[in-house]
Amino acid sequence: MSDKTPAVLVDQASKWYGEVIGINDVSLAIDGGVTGVLGPNGAGKSTLFKLLMGRLKPSQGSVRLFGVDPWTNTAPYRRVGYVSESERMYDWMTALDFVTTLARLHGMTREEATARAEHVLDFVGLSDVQNKELGKYSKGMRQRVKIAHALVHDPDLIILDEPLHGCDPIARTSIMNVIRELGSQGKTVIISSHILEEIERITEQIVILHNGRLLALGNLHAIRALLDKHPHRILLTCDDPRHLASEFISEDPVYGVRFPEEGKLEIQTNDLSAAHAILPRVIVDSGADVSAIENPDDNLESLLGYLIGGDS
Amino acid sequence: MDAKGRALSETVWTRLDRKAGAITELTIRQLRHRISTWVVLIVGALVMALLLAFYVDAIRDDFEPVDNDGDSVDWDNDGYPQGQENKYGTSDWDGQEYPGSGYYVMTGEVDWNDDSRSHSGNHTWEGQGYLDAEWVDLDYTGNRWSGLIDWGEVNPCPEGDVLDDWWPDWGEACTYDDGLYFVSGKFRASGSVNVPENGYMQWGHMTLESYVEPEPASMYIDEDGILWDGEDVSDLETIVEVDDDGDCLADMNDNNRNGIPCDVIWILDADGDEIIEIRADYNVNEDPEESKYLGESSHRTFIIGTGKMAFVMMLGIFIPLFLALGLVRDETENGTLHYLLSKPIHRAEFIIYRLLGYLLLAGTYILVLVLLMALVTSLIGPGDSLIRLSDFPVWLGIGLATVLVLAAYGALYNTLGLIAPKYGVYFCIILGIWEFIMGMFTMTLPSASVPMLSISHWALQLIDAIVLIAWPDTLQYTQIASAFGIDSGLPFFWQPPVHTLDTQSPVVALLVSITVLLLITVAMVGIGQASFKNREIM
After folding, report:
1. Are residues A129 and A262 in the same domain?
2. Do B343 and A102 touch (CB under 8 A)?
3. Res B236 pLDDT > 70
4. Among B207, B238, B255, B443, which residue carries the largest CB count within 10 Å?
5. Report field, pTM of the whole predicted structure over 0.90
């Protein structure tokens, strides 16, 4: 983008539905790269996106896409691709048909639209099933068709509302690859999710929303580093928890152990990185048979709890 | 769509805005994928097929001659049809009086206050009095009224004064000891009659009887036709109509109050080539040939009635209810609107393209249906030519009216669906009923002002106008039907268009109707756009 106006500019925007607050006094600017919008359900992610897409009118403040108010002007949509959270599609259409039809709404001829549709369906990995009816698609495939339709006009800004929601792991990986690829092409990508781990695998640049408020904005790792200094738990599934516990208790980062249930060991630490650093050595030395390692606190809820200032 | 269809639509679409093409096409394809669309369209086609079946059945039968004035019937069972009795001036309700039966001629009377109260002679008598008879005709039957004295049953007269103490029955006689009769009724006798005070007696004679051959009833069916061949009326102004069967001349009337009994006034339009009104005296031209008049008027009645009732008021109201109500609303409810609105399309534009798609589908359907109907009626309709080309403009006019109605209702229903997504369908049903009632009012009372608030009014007026343009003599047909009291549905289904802006020109009425329907459509689209533009879509 040659101009100085950022792709997305939200200035002190609030949106409430009667008594219910959608978003509350949110200001942010996003331009370039992949940005993850994190927040639990009801945090205001979809409200923010609908404000960006001109579906809703801000109750206060302003929203600009490429410097234009999307509520009154459809011009920015030429440069925006939007994947809504709605699951519904025209099930009687084939994927190619669907994307082609929507591409024509950008003013392409039928030939251009078909060519572009085939291209983007190939990009999301659906070229071999593009002539199947959407009603026969799996959820992951449908999500990818929705992404394809948002990409068909080669937009500069792509907004994806929970694109990974309900997808199986394979589809998830495939969609994440697509989004990373878009980021590396230099496009501005905004993706929402309520699962930290998903976003973490795609981008470091995040916006955290909670109860309609902007809670944090910036680099995920910086935020996580803060979180690492906080009490954390690591949950191990192993054959002899008590023996393994005796090995861990002498290690420096570990300040306590618990046995939450049969065959499980919980290690408590104040330094998650350090604890993870010693983890492989201790397990190998103990000779224990560890079948799973989990970080129950390494989720959005814990992060939010930390950011809000309570204890997690 | 096959490759050929795709290629065809491509040439059509590339001329139009590509976005418009895409949404229009999407709309048509969506509608085609809904069962309700097919149900409505198929039911509509079935109704038309049914109507056509009735039409074919009716038109295939020859038109039975109908005795419109009923003068072929022998009402009084005297062996002579009413028409023949009219001609001879005999009574059509008195079986004793018939052509050749002779009739009574009065020559004198004794009134209730006359001084001289007796009279002698050989007469036919009627009244009450003392009869000193020289001769009585016991077999007398020729009479004008009932009340013939039965001479076979004559009883002694009661005691006391007649007309004071007792009252004789009409048609009876009684006798006194001295051979004097008291008669009350009709009789033929020779002698002297003394009429009591306050009594009345007249006398006279019967004319000669002769035999008149009764005419067949069929002579009095279709016997009094209209002096008009349905084509050239330019010389009609001076024509004096003839009461062919004499039933007006027998009982002359001047119903049209022009001073001339038993005539018909034809009122022509300014150009003198069109009958705009007929004022007829009773019993003139009242019994035309059914095959000539009814064949044509039934044919027109069918086309106009089908156009108004089946096309405008049935298809026009129901198709939009099923096809247009959810055009935008359903997209909102299904959550598929997001795909369309995240594209660079203004919402107002979106509504227009959606309606365009709906109209293309429904309009094509109507056009096909109308042309099929036109083909059938023009092939089997009355007339000498192989195909009645004059039917086509009327059918196409009906098609135009229906499409304009579909546009207006479509825009209206779509707007209602937007404004009241939940209850829109109920509003639409209520509106549909309103439109139907106003349509019926328009047919019976086209000049009433309340129906002007409906869409159907203008569509029906449009059909009235196009009918008058394509068949200018339809006016004559309706005038003939009402002037001569002929049974025809035409005056119910068709009346001359009202909205001619005082020009009497059907073309003006046509343009006015089209303009109003288009304005309604535009206004409804505008309201829908305004509502949709400011709508937040969750």
Report:
1. no
2. yes
3. no
4. B443
5. no
